[in-house]
Amino acid sequence: MDELTMVRDLLAEPAPCPEVVAEGRERLLHSAAGAVPPAGRIRRPALRSALALGITGAAAAAALAVATMGSGPGIFPGGGAKVVTGGSARSVLLAAAVKAESDAASGTYWHVRSVSRTTLPRKFGHGENRYTLEQLTLTENWTTHAGRSWLGRRQWVRPKTHEDEVAWKRDGAPTRWCLGQTDTSPPQPICLRTAPGTASLTRFGQDTFQITEGHDLTFTQLQRLPRDPDALRAWLSRMARHDLDPSAGTAVVDLNVENELSDLLVYHPVPPRVRAAAFRALADMPGVVSTGPTHDELGRAGIGIELKPEHAVAVLGGGSAVTGPGKLTRMLIIDPHTSHVLADQTRIGARPEPAIDTLILDVGWTNERPQRPAVPAAVPPAGEALSA
Fold first, then answer.
1. What are phi and psi of 51, to 5 degrees?
2. Backbone dihedral region of 40: left (phi > 0), alpha (psi from -120 to 50 degrees) or beta?
3. What is the helix (H) or strand (E) element at residue 18, kind and residue range?
């Protein structure tokens, strides 16, 4: 039995009913917590520095701070409805590799459209009417074959939960919160709004892609990455050892390599054979397991692939406000029929909500020109679900 047949059998289940898909679309922007890539670089939201913690000592652990945590129902094991279990991560990843090799690389732009949600770290409102806001971000990246890159973004906020919505309404249902001014000349107010703000489109001044911490590659260099899975894994291992504390052991190096291989599957415009090599290399890494068939929050069917570290930890909090350590666990929901990554989550410890939760809406080569992200099809009042 070939790999694609094995995965086809794993996914031999009824498609989600229209009601499930509709519910998933309504929950679209309840799904992610992340950050916008810094100008001049393209990278996924990451807790990369945390990967060496637990090996390099308490001083290194204290240096890491994650200011905000994700919110809302996730799709980690236990957080979503798995339909069937069974099948190995290796079978799933090898099947995806076969599909990735045949992907078309034609089109003017490499395009990634994603959605994220971040819980703001302070309370808003007055008196007993205090509530938490979440910031919603639509992000789009475009990159040409010549390596020129653009970033499009649109942001707004809304109450995080139903209880927050009730408190927000008691507080008068404000639609704008200003938190100070920028350090520009002249200063500009920094304000949050419930309505989708003016979308931006920025041309990067420096077109590089962060492959490992401290190592940025140009588009041309990305095209030259090894096509052989062993060679690709060895190259990433050398980069990881260069970046990590000398005391970091094999387990920490492996975890870094697993995360960088995962990034190559979706965030960087690498050739199809490099993506296929990344799938195959990840298939043979330790601590990579399948959590079985599941659906993302749009109702799209895929299989959960989890990266389970043995030693890596992160510390939450900022400055002296350290709240505790926990292991980092990353999960990708992959559609083996297309090789596309549908969702990418990072969880810390046993917390039910992902610290980083990104839903990939669209990825691949396109002739669509860079543009400001459009307003979602439906924008209901704050506190209500938003459809795609």
1. -65, -20
2. left
3. helix 18-26
Residue 359 has φ and ψ, to the nearest 5°, of -105, 120
CA quadruple 268, 271, 296, 79: dihedral positive or negative?
Answer: negative
pLDDT digits (tens, 9 = 90+) for 88-144: 899 999 999 999 998 877 889 999 999 887 778 789 999 999 999 988 888 999 999
Instruction: Concatenate the DSSP letters of all residues of 234-268 into one string.
Output: HHHHHHHHHHS-TT--HHHHHHHHHHHHHHHTTTS
Contact predicate 29/117, CB 8 Å:
yes
Integer Cα distance of 380 and 388 in angstroms: 12
Q: What is the dihedral of CA 198, 176, 133, 380, to 10 degrees?
A: -60
This prediction has a pTM of: 0.72
Tell me the domain boundaries of the chain: 3-118+227-366
Q: Which of 115, 200, 168 is nearest to 386 (CA)?
A: 115
HSE toward the beta carbon, residue 314, CA cutoff 13 A: 26
